[in-house]
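Table S2 (text version). Query chain:
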Amino acid sequence: MKRILSTLKEKWPEYILEIIVLIIGIWGAFELSNYGENKNRKRAELEILKGCKTELVTDLAEINFNMDELRKSQNALNLILEVLENDGSYHDSLASQFIYTLLPLHFVHSTSSFETAKSKGLDIISNTDIRNKLIAVYDSQYDFFLKAEAEELAEVQYNMRHILARRFESGWNYSGKDTFEGSMIPLDFESLKTDQEFIYFIKTQQNRTRSYVGYFYENLRKSVASMIHDLEIEINRLDR
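Corresponding structure-token output:
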């Protein structure tokens, strides 16, 4: 025992140094591991945010296209009602307006990057504000809009079968793949002027289209545009 105590007394500085070196080595390895994990996590976060931004930019282009088509529908409905209520004469150009009374528009969009974030855990998005805004866009705004779209498309199908089918030669006569331009020829144009069911349909479509563009689509457009702007700022901050 005396020999052990004597040895410890003589070599305690050496032992303490060895312990310190060991502690520093363990701490360094731990910090290096954390650094690697944080770097990988940041890389994954950036990929997700960049993916969300890319998809939202594409979604915004789709929104703008659909809004433009719906505005054409608004103009067509206004023109048709004006001609019918003012006892106007039929001319071939009206066929291109009738085709715009009903538009089977779908909001084609992507949520794959956000779904990837959800699969990894949404806390991978370090900025709480950005995380909450993405949740609001994808899980709230998109869901709310798609429910309205489903109702609108159901109405389009119903009116095509029950309102237009008895009054026009045929429907869905589109001239191109990327546009709703085409023609729809009435069976008896003069009878439409006193057709209260058809007049009601046109006026109701005016109201529905106005609210669809001005409320549902416009709110969606603002949310997506704002999210793109916020993502650009966040991506630039993380990518330094």
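Notes on Table S2: The CA atoms of residues 95 and 184 lie 5 Å apart. The chain has one domain: 52-238.
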